[in-house]
């Protein structure tokens, strides 16, 4: 029996239907990304709170369990969560050969001063390269290699600085910004895992080049990522192969090319272009895939629904352990970026609001927060940084100051770009000493 899709208003859903598509990107909802059966009225109420309409597989409505095992979803990355029939893949713990134990050798303040132009230089180099790829001109990868080496050195010295800068930097072209931010997340994760400097260079360069194939796709298609129909999504998936075709004769190392080739593969075999799984995916490609997925969850896109808060994205990654991403890799990533990653907008338990500046791996729930409003949400004339771990050190439980919730991107009154974190005067007369303590 064939399986067809039927568009239906959420108010008309019934228990037993199989939801195969939504009217918004899957990753911005709590629902399994490959589709799911409606088991109760609670499922219907949850759909009503997120969507106006969905598509259901009409044949699945009759013989749902059997068909759900053989029909490959269009948008999904495959598999189901534990307890819901979602495929899991258990592997022995990752083994990093001769891991390096890094420690921060400079302060956040100093590293931001020395690296503040680094992402701008990376954006320019990346734009020149992608333009050359599009126009069939000769491609000089040396500027990109130089920039990525500087990024690696910065992350090794102090991982939070480049994370902060990447969350604030703007670029008109989404593809460039996506590649840059993915590279930073991946480098911070690789540092946590103990990759040596050479491997970090391969990882970072591979991430920067991973989106090259998108230059061969239309801007209209790219502007609607996450909202594509079946035929459009099939075309979108070809960007990996198109990128490899452009880079194969470039003289890049096999390690770098493995990142470009494998960053959309998934742990349980549900990715593309080859659908490989587990240990068949190179380690650097696994890290790049996790970083790229996380950036997709939290990045703001004009014309698309609001992104996830970083805290919700971290929770989603944790739920995907041994499904789409390897368990110990996910945990290493979360240790590297924190429960509330640098750049997260937050509200404290006393009502003050601000942005996470950095975090401590030992006290992941108590990061440093740059407070920008008072408890009534009115902007402060001068921002201040509160190190929650130090603040709570000798306080009783009733006096502890903590993060109440992560706030949505673009929350009113929370624009960290209004503060010059390198020490220059800002419109709030903000002093560097108030921002970052050693």
Architecture blueprint of SSEs:
Blueprint: E1 5-9, E2 18-22, E3 36-37, H1 41-50, E4 53-57, H2 64-70, H3 108-115, H4 118-134, H5 142-157, H6 159-168, H7 174-193, H8 197-209, H9 219-223, H10 230-236, H11 239-247, H12 254-262, H13 283-298, H14 310-319, H15 327-337, E5 345-348, E6 353-360, E7 363-373, E8 379-387, H16 388-391, E9 403-406, H17 432-435
Antiparallel strand pairs: 1-4, 2-3, 2-4, 5-6, 5-9, 6-7, 7-8
Helix pairs in contact: 3-6, 4-5, 5-6, 5-7, 5-8, 6-7, 7-8, 7-13, 7-15, 8-12, 8-13, 11-12, 12-13
Question: Keywords, please?
Answer:
single chain; 438 residues; alpha+beta; Hypothetical protein af1432; 3 domains; five-stranded antiparallel β-sheet; four-stranded antiparallel β-sheet; 17 helices; globular; disordered C terminus
């Amino acid at each position: 029996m064939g399986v067809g899709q039927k568009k239906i208003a959420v108010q008309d859903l019934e228990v037993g239907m199989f939801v195969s598509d939504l009217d918004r990107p899957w990753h911005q909802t709590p629902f399994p990304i490959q589709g799911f059966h409606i088991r109760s009225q609670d499922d219907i109420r949850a759909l009503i709170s997120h969507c106006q309409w969905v598509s259901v597989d009409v044949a699945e409505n009759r013989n749902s369990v059997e068909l759900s095992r053989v029909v490959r979803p269009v948008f999904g990355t495959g598999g189901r969560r534990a307890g819901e029939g979602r495929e899991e893949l258990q592997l022995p713990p990752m083994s990093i050969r001769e891991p390096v134990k890094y420690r921060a050798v400079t302060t956040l303040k100093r590293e931001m001063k020395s690296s503040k132009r680094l992402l701008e230089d990376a954006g320019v180099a990346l734009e020149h390269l992608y333009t050359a790829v599009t126009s069939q001109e000769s491609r000089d990868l040396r500027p990109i290699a130089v920039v990525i080496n500087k990024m690696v050195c910065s992350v090794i010295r102090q991982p939070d600085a480049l994370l902060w800068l990447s969350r604030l930097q703007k670029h008109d072209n989404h593809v460039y910004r996506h590649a840059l931010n993915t590279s930073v997340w991946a480098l911070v994760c690789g540092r946590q895992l103990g990759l040596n400097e050479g491997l970090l260079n391969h990882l970072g360069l591979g991430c920067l080049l991973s989106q090259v194939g998108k230059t061969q796709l239309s801007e209209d298609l790219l502007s609607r990522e996450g909202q594509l129909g079946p035929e459009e999504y099939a075309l979108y998936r070809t960007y990996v192969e198109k990128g490899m075709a452009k880079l194969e004769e470039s003289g890049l190392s096999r390690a770098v090319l493995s990142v470009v080739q494998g960053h959309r593969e998934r742990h349980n075999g549900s990715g593309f272009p080859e659908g490989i799984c587990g240990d068949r995916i190179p380690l650097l490609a696994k890290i790049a895939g996790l970083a790229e997925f996380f950036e997709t969850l939290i990045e703001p896109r004009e014309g698309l629904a609001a992104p996830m808060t970083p805290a919700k994205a971290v929770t989603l990654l944790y739920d995907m352990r041994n499904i789409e991403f390897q368990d110990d890799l996910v945990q290493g990533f979360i240790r590297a970026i924190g429960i509330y990653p640098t750049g997260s907008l937050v509200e404290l338990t006393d009502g003050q609001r601000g942005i996470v500046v950095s975090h401590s791996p030992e006290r992941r729930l108590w990061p440093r927060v740059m407070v920008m409003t008072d408890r009534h949400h009115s902007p402060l004339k001068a921002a201040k940084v509160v190190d929650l771990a130090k603040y709570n050190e000798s306080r009783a439980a009733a006096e502890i100051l903590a993060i109440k919730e992560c706030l949505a991107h673009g929350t009113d009154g929370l624009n960290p770009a209004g503060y010059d974190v390198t020490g220059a005067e800002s419109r709030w007369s903000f002093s560097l000493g108030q921002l970052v303590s050693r």
